[in-house]
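Q: Give me the 3D complex with coenzyme A.
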Amino acid sequence: MTTGGAGHGGMTTLPDGYRLVDVGERREEFLDVDRLAFGFASDPEVDAAVPVTLDWSRAVGVEGPDGRLAAVHASFPFAMPVPGGTVATAGLTWVGVRPDHRRRGLLSAMITEHLDRTARRGEPVSALFAAEAAIYGRFGYGGAADALHLTLPRGAALRPVPGSAELDLRLEPLDPAVHDDVVHAVHAAAGAGRPGWILRDTDVLRRRHLVDPPAWRQGGEPLRVVTVADGRDVRGYALLRRVERWEDGRPRGAVRIREVAAVDAAAAHRLWSFLLDLDLTATVETGMLAVDDALPHLLVDPRAATSRLQDNLWVRIVDLPGALTARRYAAGFDVVLEVADARRPSNAGRWRVRTEAPDVAGGHVAEVTRSTDPADVTVDVRELGAALLGGRSLVAMQRAGLVTEHRPGSLAAVATAFGWPFAPVCSWGW
Ligand SMILES: CC(C)(COP(=O)(O)OP(=O)(O)OC[C@H]1O[C@@H](n2cnc3c(N)ncnc32)[C@H](O)[C@@H]1OP(=O)(O)O)[C@@H](O)C(=O)NCCC(=O)NCCS
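A: Here is the predicted complex, encoded as structure tokens.
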């Protein structure tokens, strides 16, 4: 075994003959590893249409004994919304190990390296979307948000919202040159205050979000955009495609929504009223929604919806004081946490987390210091990461045997404080 890349966290251990390397100019080789890992081929038409969004200075590989890349990963620098603020976050991405190098510990070594680099860059948190949900918990990532996917029948009735009918609605072919600004602005406004609502805040991420190569359409039409406006400002949009289908002579088309965003209830109502009543369609698939989205509240018959809940953001606390002080808290509390972190000893041990008076933006500011006092609550960094965005109850985790309370009442206080009025979600990812 060889070791290297030791930061103030754990050691990076690789099997003999393997070593960590910066990817540098080996970009095609990097992309090839992921093609092999995920099982997709290079398609000239797709490659020409879809920009690679990676920040190559943050791309890392593992070189195998044959001198070729055997595993890769990279990360995005995000300002991730947390309750009442944002935290600098490394968005882990493009994680892939060649199938002929699997289960030798390459991912484990890459995660240690990623967490060390993240800490050195001063990013207190790492976050990701998981290809398979069983992979990342062992590395201290906690499932911090879920997304709701609804399938609705055409014609599902909505409760009325004043002002909805007065909004202007337009359906157009999606043209990035025309719609990029409005999509970006409404997306940002619609998610203001929502933890996890990461913005596509670079040109290349914005461009990537609106691409639509024919190979991605799965039998559907090119992407359309529907916007609703009050005569002056656009207040909501949906990116969608219809898939034409006929059964026994009857139209059974589907409406597939890539993303929907609305800044208020009237805009949401106007959009959904339209999407739920398109000719020749039978079903509407919503794509990712926050679990507290307006739509389920608007349905006259909530049982009309078939719902699926899927894990959304996974959050890994890399620098505990940095992460816990980046957010605000819903109530005051003073607690000593005993934190376990098998991979980053710098997070482990006892911490006093104590709130000060609410700040002007609302929510309590916390002070986080080392403590030698007896612990009130014992928690693993995974569960603390799960609670960071305000969407998971530490009391629920206690009931699953994952959190332990030592001082009666202390857990209820900290769980209440970690809660937040908006459910976390990230509306996009790849
Ligand atoms: C998932 C993947 C990255 C794992 O890489 P790897 O180098 O084989 O992983 P490691 O050998 O470091 O395994 C570390 C541990 O995770 C476990 N593990 C790995 N992949 C897992 C999976 N898909 N589901 C559950 N556990 C998994 C291993 O069993 C091992 O457990 P152990 O420590 O108890 O023995 C690799 O199989 C891969 O590239 N898969 C296809 C692409 C993909 O899914 N990428 C992730 C994108 S988010």
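A quick observation: The chain has three domains: 2-123, 148-310, 320-418.
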